[in-house]
Amino acid sequence: MRSFFINVLEHYIPASQGNFTDHPIADLLRNSFPKSIKDIIEESDKYIFKGSAGQSRWAACPWVAILDVLVTTSTQDGYYPVYIFREDMTGFYLTLNQGVTSVGQEIKKGYRSILKKRANSLRMQINYDAQLFSSENINLRKGKNTKSHLPRDYEAGNIISKFYSLANVPPKDELVSDLKLMLSIYSELVAAKNLTSVAQEEKDEVQEINNSERTPTQKQRLIDARLGQGKFRRDVVSIEKNCRITGTSDIAFLIASHIKPWSKSNDTEKLDGNNGLLLSPHVDKLFDKGFISFSDNGEVLIKDEAKDIFKSWNLQETNVGSFNKKQQEYLAYHRNQYQF
Question: Was domain 2-189 assigned CATH 3.30.920.90?
């Protein structure tokens, strides 16, 4: 692992003066380097490992990132640990950073201020050793003639980081220890964000229902449906007897999950038991995020980026049985929504 860092630090600048296509340094960053990191990480199946030396031309600051599939499958959004090299190759950072591309595309003017605000918010949700990881700004040493805006974007997206200089790259054991600690912090943040975002989303939608002009009975039915309770849950249970993937039949451990997302459903669809599946919590997470879906005849459809974690959870890809016609209509929407 240490040799990969030194190789990039010592040879990237000379390499970037030459042809980009099929260069060994570019291949190292895209393939060998991410694989070497994957090989030392426990539960590596829950992550996607990506590296880049640029697209069609050399990047100012090459990087290697580790993405939790429950957060993002693209470095353009979400948040994730990433090794980013300074442009002058005097060192590199292990940084918990953010996807910057999607923010820039959506907000355009002032997006770096948004990245910094988000970084501050995320930083407040984690516990970390301030002696090991710093909350100070990172400096990627962008050159005066560099046209790319990405180095400044990466600097704005930094949450916490540790810097390693070319003159003092630590031994492999220390690099591995630092990375595992960063991944531990990342995992805690993912868990906290998932719980917080779901709870806040439910709270906001319940408030929206209460503030609407619906009758008290209509309000309560919708609130129960949003929380996977009441008539909606009972109707789902009358149709679905178990989680189709895990086989779990104890409804105390199953979630009544909407097939057509709640936010996209009208009031009738929100209460329709045919618009629901009983799923084990981890399966619900994959279904809700659009990593898996089902064909009308019960074939399990899995996105490529979720296949490893699907296997690591010992989930089976066997046919789960056909769905009724109304369920098929909702599943068609789900497949289209998530581009299966």
Answer: yes
